[in-house]
Automatic annotation (TrEMBL):
GO molecular function term, any single one: tripeptide aminopeptidase activity
Natural source organism: Odoribacter splanchnicus
Binding site for Zn(2+) 2: D139, E174, H378
Record-listed Zn(2+) 1 binding positions: H78, D139, D196
Lineage: Bacteria, Pseudomonadati, Bacteroidota, Bacteroidia, Bacteroidales
NCBIfam families registered for this protein in UniProt: peptidase-T, PRK05469.1, PRK13381.1
Protein name: Peptidase T
Function: Cleaves the N-terminal amino acid of tripeptides.
Gene Ontology CC annotation, any one: cytosol
Swiss-Prot/TrEMBL GO biological process terms: peptide catabolic process; proteolysis
Name of the coding gene: pepT
UniProt-annotated catalytic positions: D80, E173 (proton acceptor)
Keyword tRNA processing listed: no
Length: 405
């Protein structure tokens, strides 16, 4: 199956994950694609194919005879799409030989070069876009398609010499649970790469340290006509706390290595209210400072309103993978070589987010992230370049050859 056909097949599966679910995977519909991928791996002739009790689909491309002593290398992508927008009933649009101008997605919606200047890079490419009503699912079905197409190539071309290759597809990455039950020992790779990046040439091996924060406020509702010195308006307390956080440390005012507090929800009424944040910073020191500052703000308002009014729950989510990857420079060096051999200019930049690879690196599997060609993830402006997807697939094949030498 060609890369384009495979990708379009995969985006036809609705695999949206659900952050409110208490099951794993969070949605049963993810298992439909995971089981499909397992069957496809079997048809291609991969070995050790399985979908385990937690939904992880894995398979093995056996080593070329005589190359069994090479390091076992893994390639990992996630199948779920973001809860931010519907991933059902997707109608991709194909633009051959893109002219470099604005793209009309539908009668009401246009993706403009002014809003998305990186579109200029893709002039002459074949682009796959949404129809403006759903996301596309390139995050991360582009990565899934690239890995599977590379696997098919290897199974059909035994002249390519390589060691044992492990493939893994995960659920629930978009809700931060992608490797909650991933068995690194069972996967059996020495090193791995997540194929979950974006722009052509991206090579990422440092990411945010990440935490979640939930503020719960127990207010005191009194008739507003008689509320003086009695009422505690939970909504106002939540708002007051937010205003004590530095405005310059919000996502809309940060870039590069700068961290932030991101308010993602406020719910409630006068009697009870809550707010939720994600806290991010590449520096572990600054990350810990941000958490301490939020604790200090909570303590300040507790002093003002009294014990039991405000409850803060902080939870670390993942850490910067850099310190886990840097001791193995060959993992990065080979990625550079593989990209250059594919005609791609490597772009090393920090991930302003996280990947399964960040957590896997701390679980003992050094796992940098490779580009896929997908852009504008999680929304109706999502698109991908088929040309870049083909280069991503070639980068995977080049890596496999390099590790096999």
């Amino acid at each position: 199956m060609e890369l384009k056909e495979r990708f379009l097949k995969y985006v036809g599966f609705d695999t949206q994950s659900d952050p409110e679910s208490e099951t794993y995977p969070s949605t049963a519909k993810q298992l439909i694609l995971l089981n499909y991928l397992a069957e496809e791996m079997k048809e291609l002739g991969l070995e050790d194919v399985e979908v385990d009790a937690n939904g992880y689909a894995m398979g093995t491309i056996p080593a070329t005879p005589g190359y069994e002593d090479r390091p076992v290398i893994g390639f990992i992508s996630h199948v779920d799409t973001s809860p931010d927008m519907s991933g059902a009933d997707i109608h991709p649009r194909i633009i051959e030989n893109y002219d470099g101008g604005d793209i009309c997605l539908n009668e009401q919606l246009t993706m403009t070069l002014a809003d998305f200047p990186e579109l200029a890079f893709f002039k002459g490419h074949t682009l796959i876009t949404t129809d403006g009503t759903t996301l596309l699912g390139a995050d991360d079905k582009a990565g899934v398609a690239e890995i599977m197409t590379a696997a098919e190539y290897l199974m059909k071309h035994p002249e390519v010499k390589h060691g044992r290759i492990r493939i893994g597809f995960t659920p629930d990455e978009e809700i931060g649970k992608g490797v909650d039950f991933f068995d690194v020992k069972h996967f059996g790779a020495t090193f791995a790469y997540t194929v979950d990046g974006g722009f052509e040439g991206e090579l990422e091996y440092e990411n945010f340290n990440a935490a979640s924060a939930r503020i719960e406020v127990q207010g005191r509702n009194i008739h507003p006509g008689y509320a003086k010195d009695k009422m505690i308006n939970a909504l106002q307390v939540v708002n007051e706390l937010n205003n004590l956080l530095p405005p310059c440390q919000r996502p809309e005012h940060t870039e590069g290595y700068e961290g932030f507090y991101h308010l993602i929800s406020i719910r409630g009424e006068v009697e009870n209210a809550s707010s939720e944040y994600i806290i991010r910073d590449h520096s572990r020191v600054k990350f810990e400072e941000k958490k301490r500052y939020l604790q200090a703000v909570t303590a300040l308002l507790t002093g003002k309103y009294g014990e039991g009014v405000i409850k803060l729950t902080l939870k670390d989510q993942y850490y910067n993978m850099r310190e886990m990857v840097e001791p193995y420079p060959e993992v990065i060096d080979k990625a550079f070589q593989a990209m250059e051999k594919a005609g791609v200019t490597p772009i090393v930049r920090p991930i302003r987010g996280g990947t399964d690879g960040a957590r896997l690196s701390y679980m003992g599997l050094p796992c940098p992230n490779l580009f896929t060609g997908g852009m504008n993830f999680h929304g109706k402006y999502e698109y991908c370049s088929l040309n870049t997807m083909q280069k991503a697939m070639q980068t995977i094949l080049n890596l496999i050859e390099l590790w096999g030498k």
